[in-house]
Amino acid sequence: MIIILKHGATDEQVDHVIERIEAMGLQPHLSKGTYRTVIGVIGDEEKVQTAPLMAIPGVEEAMPVMPAYKLASREAHPQPTVVEVGSGSAITKLGGGHFGMIAGPCAVESAERLDEIAAAIKAAGANILRGGAFKPRTSPYSFQGLGEEGLKILREVGDKHGLPVVTEVIDPRHVELVAEYTDMIQLGARNMQNFVLLTEVGKTHKPVLMKRGMAATIKDLLMSAEYVIANGTTEVVLCERGVKGFDNACRNMLDIAAVPQVQLMSHLPIIVDPSHATGRPELIPACALAAAACGADGIHIEVHNCPEEAMSDGPQALLPEQYATLAAQIRKVAEAVGKTF
Amino acid sequence: MIIILKHGATDEQVDHVIERIEAMGLQPHLSKGTYRTVIGVIGDEEKVQTAPLMAIPGVEEAMPVMPAYKLASREAHPQPTVVEVGSGSAITKLGGGHFGMIAGPCAVESAERLDEIAAAIKAAGANILRGGAFKPRTSPYSFQGLGEEGLKILREVGDKHGLPVVTEVIDPRHVELVAEYTDMIQLGARNMQNFVLLTEVGKTHKPVLMKRGMAATIKDLLMSAEYVIANGTTEVVLCERGVKGFDNACRNMLDIAAVPQVQLMSHLPIIVDPSHATGRPELIPACALAAAACGADGIHIEVHNCPEEAMSDGPQALLPEQYATLAAQIRKVAEAVGKTF
Amino acid sequence: MIIILKHGATDEQVDHVIERIEAMGLQPHLSKGTYRTVIGVIGDEEKVQTAPLMAIPGVEEAMPVMPAYKLASREAHPQPTVVEVGSGSAITKLGGGHFGMIAGPCAVESAERLDEIAAAIKAAGANILRGGAFKPRTSPYSFQGLGEEGLKILREVGDKHGLPVVTEVIDPRHVELVAEYTDMIQLGARNMQNFVLLTEVGKTHKPVLMKRGMAATIKDLLMSAEYVIANGTTEVVLCERGVKGFDNACRNMLDIAAVPQVQLMSHLPIIVDPSHATGRPELIPACALAAAACGADGIHIEVHNCPEEAMSDGPQALLPEQYATLAAQIRKVAEAVGKTF
Amino acid sequence: MIIILKHGATDEQVDHVIERIEAMGLQPHLSKGTYRTVIGVIGDEEKVQTAPLMAIPGVEEAMPVMPAYKLASREAHPQPTVVEVGSGSAITKLGGGHFGMIAGPCAVESAERLDEIAAAIKAAGANILRGGAFKPRTSPYSFQGLGEEGLKILREVGDKHGLPVVTEVIDPRHVELVAEYTDMIQLGARNMQNFVLLTEVGKTHKPVLMKRGMAATIKDLLMSAEYVIANGTTEVVLCERGVKGFDNACRNMLDIAAVPQVQLMSHLPIIVDPSHATGRPELIPACALAAAACGADGIHIEVHNCPEEAMSDGPQALLPEQYATLAAQIRKVAEAVGKTF
């Protein structure tokens, strides 16, 4: 921790800060500049992190020097984590050179429709099937998902096509239920800082797909991963899916630099979801290829066989044939940067 | 609904859009421009709102003309809603000219400390006591609140000082418990789109304090209020508490124009929280006065009697004496724009 | 300057950083933490500021401890600057308790129209007349202003009504011409970092009205003021006029906290322009009152007597009668927080 | 143009709007919905674009249906524009499958240094040399460039190595001078809406490299290109270089989706500058590859042979050897998506 005092801080204020530091069993290291005084704090950074040092009169800033996301940090775990999703013959790996191709409809609507979509994406090279059974909708009047019925359909269709499945949970009371049916639990962007849900999901020890919140910094994202890991699940895949931007021509702004940033700061795999990032099918292919080229550990794309009838997010879905074309291009680019399938 | 077709949409595409509209029992009204074709859709807008019209080939944009937040809209309810918080002799009103002065520590830390703070803010003119028992913290290693013990302390201290109380709920499984102890339930910024929690809180029929999410538009905020109202609670107070900004010199960016915007679009009261909006005590007074002048229905401020010992958000708390000075100024400005206390 | 080394920086890297610092005639002060090494740099901060210390291998961050905007800083000049605009009997002061009421049309369109508007705003209490003669328009096909003819009209109408005038300059080749006709030179938001223009304007020694750029931090704004001051003009009035936001319901997002922030960091007056900040007449009054309450040194409002015929920005203009009502309220609120008129 | 009236607009208001439209020689087409009235305006959209229709009482919104950037639009010019930079044997093409590799130091510092860098980037495959002679610096105390001396050095070094050159102009009075020495004129991000400069640069008929402003939407960018084209230069290359973001861990936020968006909306080539977008050398390679994969028409990268001595932006420069490695990867990815070199 580095404590920067305000210009003009009094000797009493400096002494008071030093006392507080020593009272915590830490060692202050004073550096008087011509303009400001700076105090380095040596000792157990964790003790210091949670202390409200900035509230002490005379303190301008208190800057931690160690990341607060300990378990998620690259420093704690220099090798990339490889997350295994699924079991038996249907196992997909993400991270450490392994590339995930997650695809499927926004919501599970019926067994027939999901079966058709699953067959198509499997043929195109997808290796994880997605589909929502519990949908977080901005309007209380919109379709909220099929619930447990949707989970059953997802499981059956996944098994039939040899695809591990991922689905979102939005209620801590449903975590156990969802965990029973799925191979990977999705935490949605709107729930990235729903710490109650993070805690429950962490306890399942299932692989997690954590989407970045719309106003979350990379540090915020890693802090949320830390919640999950601290509660028991070490297999967390992060997902960049666009953040809030100022240009409404796009649904969100895809922060492609998040991929190398996460890889520098953390050992966790990071994938990209160009469907939610852009909300516009005509922009998805280019953004998916960008993600593959910049080293993402996977791509998440929404696919629907009749977008105009979709019960959720139809306008942003690719058609199965569009996905097939794109999947082949993604594979080519991902292989060019060293991924294996 | 207005459907704008792409420049160059084919006759088949136009016909297909018209068929879809008629199939929904609605009436299309075609307007062929020199550059684009536009279709007005006449009939029950609600049916149309949830249809994925933008997914139909040839459609450029589908724009609703009626707000999707029906119950929360000013049009549905032209008179301002007055929310009553508390019971018996300790009732505080917000909205329709009534002004709420919500104050208290970020977290309930102990009965003694809360009692001291409550006495001070009551004397300064506050009319609702806040204090967190369940804290949504970005780090799993931070203090998470006293839980039910905190709720008890809050209730007792509120009763002792004749102050209705408000506290946050973060877990749908705790909604009933929290509702038992509090006069008003807070939904935090990070949970503004936690629709499961919104639904449970709506069912309690308790007044709600809903904070705006960090990347939420005003429309998003009103859609979340709609969730609560649609589930039973009509008494929702909205709270502008700063949105994500690009200048890290401030914790968030206070969107002061949200106050008149909400008042144009909705009948619900809107208050301002300059503590979270700025995160810096030296900016809080000016921002609080701005909020009072622009017609906010209340001000929410964090107060602590020893910020450097606070277990949460100490650096942004005002001291009781700072609050007392500010409260007098707020009252003066609020009265100047027609509020009653 | 504080230099924070990367975790794991080698001894050679540390030595190299120290050598570089000493080579600049400065004194390094080493502080080895358990996790990171930090070097305080003591001596002439200015020498250090412009050095690319962050480019040295092993350096994680190089943080200045002194503001880079020396002349504009509060520390260099603890007393608020009072800017005087105009001459003879028509002098308006801004800052140090003096409040500027700047009003007028977006563009000067004709002598008659400007005369009518000027008479109305003068009667309402405005003390500076604005009007654009050179307009920075986003479309090359839009009205670009009357040029010198507009400057002449502005000067004559201002003189007739005893109002000092302010107008924008957008071309460094016109600075002298504009300075001849006007009492105060406006630098628009889009030109806040047009350093060539800033330099030329600074040389005129005329009072300047500098609008904040749409993506400028407060520090950026003060750096631009520094350009003007360093070139000769010490009388700079800053103007918060909304920054880029993510909610397109408003033209921009009014950053009201910029007012107290500027006042903490600088001695320069800061005013608010709610017209450009919101772009919507129905939001202007509330935002103007907010600005007055939070301590702004003035308010800038666009007024037009027939917005639907305005040649620029009509939709955001207030009518003269709306301005009159608002001006009376602004004065009341500004007086309540200690301003004089 | 589509005019949406406010809910509850009176008949008089509707009639007034219709009269105004007819007075402009246009044809209104009324569509009365159950909730709102909408008026389609048929006729010459250009006449309508600049009219302040939104200022008419009762109008909620006035939406153009035709892009305001006519000359820059894809609709006006369906085939991609190929921009040729340079002359004689040193010609580089961008657009329509041709890929530009622009590289060089932020500022021209000396003939020797530039010569060394140019030799290195040429060997690595760069096909345009960049270097600033007039630098827009945020501090008046920073190095402002070598001026004409810098232009001469750039020209000589470019010629020696057979590389066309690009350099920034920041002053309309220098446009002719700069045009004399350079093959392509750069308009910097801070000057994207410096319409005076845009106009002068357009008159030179030289190829232009236009960087996107930090708060500019894609439409804003195309409107600025329109300025240049309307003044004479049809060869404009656009450049995405990161926009203002909320996460300060990165200098800016690279909006990668801007590439396919521009390609849908315009015929102009679009390149990416990952150096300014990230400001961090460790993120540049991944972002450059992303840009190549998503179809950008070129990549702009800052290269310096001794970043810690650079007089401008050293910390974000790549070393020549880093650039060589990256350039080979870029070429591979760009070829994979169909570009030629």
TrEMBL record, chains A, B, C, D:
The Enzyme Commission number assigned here is 2.5.1.54
Q: Name one GO biological process term.
A: aromatic amino acid family biosynthetic process
Entry keywords, A to Z: Transferase
- Superkingdom of origin organism: Bacteria
InterPro entries in the cross-refs: Aldolase_TIM (IPR013785), Class-I_DAHP_synthase (IPR052899), DAHP1/KDSA (IPR006218), DAHP_snth_FXD (IPR041071), DAHP_syn_2 (IPR006268)
Q: What SUPFAM superfamilies does the entry give?
A: Aldolase
GO molecular function per UniProt: 3-deoxy-7-phosphoheptulonate synthase activity; aldehyde-lyase activity
Protein name in UniProt: Phospho-2-dehydro-3-deoxyheptonate aldolase
Q: Which residues form the DAHP synthetase I/KDSA domain?
A: 95-336
Q: Which Pfam families match?
A: DAHP_snth_FXD, DAHP_synth_1
Gene (name only): aroF_3
Q: Where is the DAHP synthase ferredoxin-like domain?
A: 1-66
**In which organism is this protein found?**
Aeoliella mucimassa
